[in-house]
Amino acid sequence: MKTDRPDYICGQEVKGNVYLNIVKPISCKSISLTFVGIEKCYWNEGDSNETGRRVIISNRAILANFAGQKLGVGQYTYPFSFLLPIDLPGTFIRGSNWHEKKIPKDFPLAPGTGSLQAIVCYTLEAEADAKEWGKDVKSKQPLIVLSPPVESKSIRESKTAPVMTCCCINKGSATMVARLEKSVYLSGETCTIICEAQNESRVDFKSIKVKLKRAIQVRNEMERFKEIFEITRKVYDGVASLTKATRELPLVLSDEKGRPIAPEAHGEIVDCSYWIEIEFGIPYAPDIDMLLPITLLAQPKEMAPIIMPEYWNPEPRNVREMSRITFSSVSMGLPRRTSPSLDGLDGRPADAGGVVVATPVDAPDD
Predict the structure, then answer these.
(1) What is the Cα–Cα distance from 110 to 278, expressed in whole angstroms?
(2) Could you tell me which CATH class the domain 2-147+301-360 is placed in?
(3) DSSP letters of 116-135?
(4) Which of the two residues, 160 and 317, has the higher pLDDT score?
(5) Of 1-15, 152-166, 313-327, the least confident
(6) Strands lying side by side in the sheet with 13-22
(7) What is the spatial distance between Cα 232 and Cα 261, in angstroms, rounded to a whole number?
(8) Given this chain, do its domains 2-147+301-360 and 155-297 carry the same CATH topology?
(9) Which of 54, 198, 262, 269 is the most exposed place for a label (fewest CB within 10 A)?
(10) Where are the domains of the chain?
(11) Could you report the per-residue pLDDT of 109-118, keeping only the tens digit for each?
């Protein structure tokens, strides 16, 4: 099985081919395509180990129904296409205890220091149902789903706070105004904060710190857990006592080693969000900080043509018509059940394509 892209944005069309190579005649019941999405989490809190799991979507579509007919020797191609539901949470992974087939190795991980493990993942599986082989023949691949673009807005926040040294000595006040030209960024992009600092205290501010921070919230039916983690930071010169300053504070939205950052995801049991924190470093006094929420999306990869296997040379009559699949939309809990009586499910001739309506199936436990 091959698809036409390494990743897809919610609502985008997925196109691909299922390739079947028959070396001797055999009875085959059907060729099917299953699309499964799962979010899972695990964390440890004290002596308690908690887990959560939700099936986002689990649908199967019949690409060809042979009703036990004999398939002759040859190579067969079954094209398919479907639109991703618009409301899927994006692919996400925190932790390394997940099977490598669920997420490609080049997909950015969400770093952290605790026990939290969390994943939102999708797979496509093509299956030839042929009992004569002793077991069904399957081809599985992960499908990277990216959150759709959202409206980007300028952000402006301001804060005035007293400067209290040694907990109780009032040295005056400070006012901070921070602006961002937009609120939506791609992983690896440079975010430039315009910071207006007015130090009306009798204390020099030693530094202005700009941090990228992330929160992952997970839950199950009974418990909730939240992890806050600093991804990267940059430190700039501070502001002298009784002065004003306007600064441009750039921050590259990657980790400390320059690697891409896992995009945000908003599932029902796994939720990841990001923000920029600006902090005035004040000696012997609580720091004054401000938070600017941002949306962080993944960098889509370039589209690539579907590359057939090297030995592939099917007869024209063995290249089937495109099957256009409708998978159930999801919003809460299990996917909505669709009617199993439409064309493409029962009595479908081997050479037919057209519209195929998928039906819910049980998701695997792994």
Answers:
(1) 22
(2) mainly beta
(3) -EEEEEEEEEEEEE-GGGSS
(4) 160
(5) 313-327
(6) 2-3, 13-22, 74-83, 323-326, 354-357
(7) 10
(8) yes
(9) 198
(10) 2-147+301-360, 155-297
(11) 787 777 899 9
